[in-house]
Amino acid sequence: MAPEYERSAEPRCVADLHALRVFSHPLRIDLYHALLAGGAATASHLADQVGEAVSLVSYHLRKMAAHGVIVEAPGESSDARERWWRVARGFTFRDFGFGAEPQGAAEPQGVAAVGGAPRPLLRFGQGCGAACSGHGANWGEKWSDTPFDWECLPRLTATELQQLSEELRGLIISYRERARAAEAAGDTEGREQVFVRMCGFPFRP
Predict the structure, then answer these.
(1) Of 13, 35, 143, 198, whose CA is between 20 and 30 Å from 6?
(2) Which tens digits make up the pLDDT trace of 94-134?
(3) Which segments of the protein form a coiled coil according to its record (predicted)?
C-alpha cells in the first residue's frame, strides 16, 4: 500500500512563513527524509537513525506536526504509549511572493527564513549524491553508471517553466506507478529506492 503522502494528488505548497521555517533546521530535514523513506516511525526509531537524543527528536517532531508536515500514524502499534509519525504529504515551496506576506515575511527575519529554507534541502540532495558516489562499489556493477546529475540553463518564459515542472513531475509519477505495478506482479528483484530531486528557477549570473 502506498504511503498516505503519495496518495495525495498534489504535493502541499508551503506558502506560510512559519511553516517554511520548519525546513530551515537540518535535523528536521533529516527526520522528514527518514520518514519519507522508511514510512511510519517513533521518536525512538528516528533517534537511532539520526544519532540524536530521543527528547530532542521528539521536540522537533512536535514542531513539524504543528505545521502539518507530519501527522500521527494510528494503528502502527498496539502499545498506546508509543507515538508513531508519518509524512503528511509531499511538499513544494516557492520563495517568490513571500515579500507580500502580511505577517512578517518582508521583515529581516522573515527574509532570512525564506532565503535559508532551501539551503538544507539542497545540501541533503547533494549529500545523497555524494554518499552514492562514495560507496559505488556497494551498489554493484549494474548501478555504477546509473546515477545522474546534470544541469542546463535554457531561456524560458514563466509559463514554459511551469509547463516543464508539470511534465517532469508527470514523468516521475509514471515511473513510480509503473514500478508499483511491477512490484505488485512480483517483479521485485534488483529494485532500490532512488532519490530524485528536481528544481527550476530563474537565474541571473
Answers:
(1) 143
(2) 544 444 443 444 444 444 444 444 555 555 555 555 555 55
(3) none
Return the pLDDT at 143.
Answer: 84
Which grid cell sits at 104? 512578517
> What is the set of domains in the chain, with CATH numbers?
4-141 (1.10.10.10), 150-205 (no CATH)
Alpha-carbon distance 114 to 105, whole Å?
A: 8
Q: Where is 63: in which H helix or E strand?
A: helix 54-66
Q: Report d(CA 62, CA 12) in Å as an integer.
A: 19
For residues 87 and 67, the answer to whether their CB atoms sit within 8 Å is: no
181 burial via Cβ count (<10 Å: 0-12, 13-18, 19+)? exposed
CB atoms within 10 A of CB 10: 9
